[in-house]
Amino acid sequence: MTEKEESMDVSDIHDSAPSAKKNGRTSLLDSGEDFEVLDDEDIDDDPPPLEDAGGGKGKNSDESDKINADTDPDPPGQVDEWLDVLGNDQLKKKVLEAGQGRDSRPQKGQNVKINLKTFLKDGALVEEQSDLTFTLGDGDVIHALDLTVQLMEMGEKALIQTDAKYAYGTRGSFQPEVPPNAELSLEVELLEATDAPDLELLPPAEKIALASQKRERGNVHYQRGDYAFAVNSYSIALQITESSSKVDISPEEENELMDVKVKCLNNMAASQLKLDHYDAALKSCVSALAHQPENIKALFRMGKVLALQGEYTEAIQTLRKALKLEPSNKTIHAELSKLVKKHSEQRGAEQAMYKKMLGNPTSSSSSSSIQKHRTKSSWGLSWKWLFGATAVAIGGVALSVVIAARN
After folding, report:
1. Whole-angstrom Cα distance, residue 328 to residue 296?
2. Distance of alpha carbon 286 from its chain centroid, rounded?
3. Secondary structure (3-state) at 309
4. How many CB atoms lie within 10 A of CB 234?
5. Which of 147, 159, 168, 153 is nearest to 86 (CA)?
């Protein structure tokens, strides 16, 4: 994919860092990168099934299930033992101060608050955060935290050692500043766990902020190449935007909520494209266009999906519609030109194949024409002889009559 296409495919992943800081909840999630398309980049009443894009659960949920099923952590009071959380020696947890017992552990879906210190392997402090709040199991933070905090007791302090795989991976992070492939040590204190708010009773402004926060986290996953996790975050954001409400909402707030929804649909389609889940991506584009028929990003991405499915005629029509809405867009120009050329080449190849299958119909047609011409010429010659003989006979009769009359 070209740099321009990447720009078109990555949108509305733009203001994540500023808004996250405003919320005061997701500074751990910020990437510091700019993520937009056309303008930037940006899911369905019935969002594409998550199994079409990594199951919507991804490895994080599978690993979390494994923790709940197979792990029997140390009982309160044992603070010296390391717990190999996943059994692969890449994520370990050690109790520094015991908590209030197993019954006080938080559950998936609850909002938890922690104090966090992040260190590099050499002991250098990367970041210190107080009262960091996130939804457990939603992928709002690095995987190491999502997987281990659910094993902590209320009031517990723990030390967590994690491989880069469960932290910031091969790309590292700009904010906080973490180099690529960095192993981390995390000091965590679990402060509280509360049930998530009832979406039906959530004021519209808070619902919009919550959906935007989940979308921004999806953008972070997208930037990092974790496309299945991105789909999961966008899906959660969609569920928030589509939830019914028992409180009054103004037309302006409805429009703002719809705008967040369309951005999620567009970004969902981009992630599904990266995962080669074309049917799911097409469904996301169709859903976005159902709400905003002239959404250029959705049209552009839909054109790309149709082309990848071999539907060149529809793809060209869709891209032409997008180009008509924004004639100066070079990315659409380039994609459309490439697609028209490819479609022309395909038609030429199909014609050559048909000729071969029919056994050189051109030669056969030529032979038939020659035969018809010969037959026509033969009939023309016969009629000429017949006409001449008749004329001679008539002339002879006429001459005999004249001679007889004179006599």
Report:
1. 12
2. 13
3. coil
4. 36
5. 147
Round to whole Å and give the CA distance between 334 and 317. Answer: 15
Least confident range from 70-79, 180-189, 207-216: namely 70-79
DSSP result, 74-101: PPTT--SPEEESSSSSSEEEEEEE--S-
Q: Is 236 exposed, middle or buried (0-12, 13-18, 19+ CB in 10 A)?
A: buried
Q: 16: helix, coil or strand?
A: helix
What separation, in Å, do the N-terminal and C-terminal C-alpha atoms of the chain show? 107
Q: Contact 207/62 with Cβ under 8 angstroms?
A: no
pLDDT higher than 70, residue 292: yes
295, exposed or middle or buried, with CB in 10 Å at 0-12, 13-18, 19+? buried
| Segment 342-390, tens digit of pLDDT | 877 776 666 667 667 776 555 455 555 555 555 555 545 455 656 666 6
Q: What is the 3-state secondary structure (H, E, C) of 246-299?
A: CCCCCHHHHHHHHHHHHHHHHHHHHHHHHCCCHHHHHHHHHHHHHHCCCCHHHH
